[in-house]
Amino acid sequence: MAKQEDIFKNVVSHAKEYGFIFPSSEVYDGLSAVYDYAQNGVELKKNIREYWWKSMVQMNENIVGLDAAILMHPTTWKASGHVDAFNDPLIDNKDSKKRYRADVLVEDYAEKIHQKAQKEIDKAKARFGDAFNEQEFITTNARVIEYLAKEKEIRERLGRSLGAGDLDDVKALIEELEIADPETGSKNWTDVKQFNLMFGTKLGASAENAMDLYLRPETAQGIFVNFLNVQKSGRMKVPFGIAQTGKAFRNEIVARQFIFRMREFEQMEMQFFVRPGEEMKWYEHWKETRLKWHLSLGLGKENYRYHDHEKLAHYANAAADIEFNFPFGFKELEGIHSRTDFDLKAHEEYSGRKLQYFDPELNENYVPYVVETSVGLDRMFLAVFATSLKEETLEDGSTRTVLQLPAVLAPTKAAVLPLVKKDGLPEVSRKIIEDLKWDFNVAYDEKDAVGRRYRRQDALGTPFCITVDHQTLEDETVTIRHRDTMKQDRVKIAELRGIIENEVSMKNWLMKM
Ligand code: ATP
Questions:
Q1: Model confidence, pTM
Q2: Residues 345, 279 share a domain
Q3: C-alpha 188: how far from its chain's center?
Q4: pLDDT, average across residues 304-327
Q5: Where among 168, 194, 220 does a domain terminate?
Q6: Closest CA to 322 of 299, 343, 350, 351
Q7: Where does the Aminoacyl-transfer RNA synthetases class-II family profile domain lie (predicted)?
Q8: Domain region containing 94
Q9: Which residues are near ligand 1 (CB < 6 Å)?
């Protein structure tokens, strides 16, 4: 089996070679943790965004959209707590001069212990087959009990010390666990320090009068400051939600995992405003609903898990992550947070304006509580892309690279290929494209032997190849080849639209939720 690092390297190089993702300003050797989405990447990203938007805004009568500006009044970030508390604990290795997030070093260590327990479980599963009772094994096998207890103890202690702002204890934990620099093995660490992640910028032409601004580190605050505008102009009734997708910026301390941790990234967030006291019900609802959305894409149930937070952010009374099995292990893909009335109250206080809702049923005013769902679009991209990239050995012993993207997200839905570049076959192919392109992204390819063209479309994730041959001229039929099974069917040209639609329509996929 290929090593995890090799799989990840392969993902990065495939993304570049096939026009999905390029390093930013590559002619100048790139900019650290900033990436550009190329011709196919931009389509995949757009489709993921749309899949989210439809499920949130179009399918829910009580959720509406918003597109707030990236630049916001600087007091926003004072009120939200970002100026004072949007910090990560950083630690430097004195020998290698490499910088790390102290919490991530400890979490990765805890995850390794978890993996050891998982290995024991997998081994036992393989040994006992159908007779295996996983729950019983976890609670009785001495080694597994020990590993899981250790993992829990470490995570809890980290949560406690971060929660209390006790950075000395985080350092002590790193030393006690003898955590070494992952790249060099050195254990010569500095103290742990806080580092603010916001990018500063200036508004205004002259240096004296310029106003200090921040590039938004999350899209959520644009929703909060517009809460009452949307509620009033849309005549919204609590409970209701506001959804938004857009860029966010964080000066991440360590950003070495491709598009998993970027300095400029895109979020898809929905803030759901509820009656105080009802937030736990809605928190559970959204936790479940969001997982169902992820599962509808068919990337495998085993690739997701919940992680309930020990350490809660300053604004939350409950929080969980949906973690995904990335090529480098389980990591946060989406956060679901019960944010209480923290944000709206803070904006009331700092702005001096009321941000309250009059509830006609209760006949009273209140500041609503908020449940947030927040998923990184780029992380979704990575999850989908990395899981879909497969190296297959075929019956004849040859191999093929296939990007088994969920068809609903594929950048190009079908490629039309004339068998040869003559005899009128290109013209018929173009006619088919003219007809299909109103509904789908369709590509034309006439270069190389048809087998090689199939392989290229497989690597791009195109669900269908439509081949036009001499028989097409006689009976208006073509072959349609399915990417995953490589099965080919002879169908009428007139049937193509229906066949494609059935496999790629957002409706059919979202109905699996
Ligand atoms: P992490 O712990 O990984 O830094 P976070 O808890 O700070 O993430 P949130 O503030 O909850 O993240 O942001 C919501 C979502 O935005 C995350 O679940 C993730 O998908 C995405 N996200 C956050 N930071 C980044 C980043 N630097 N690059 C890409 N996506 C990000």
A1: 0.87
A2: yes
A3: 34
A4: 90
A5: 194
A6: 299
A7: 151-418
A8: 87-194
A9: 218, 250, 252, 261-262, 265, 267, 332-335, 374-376, 378-379
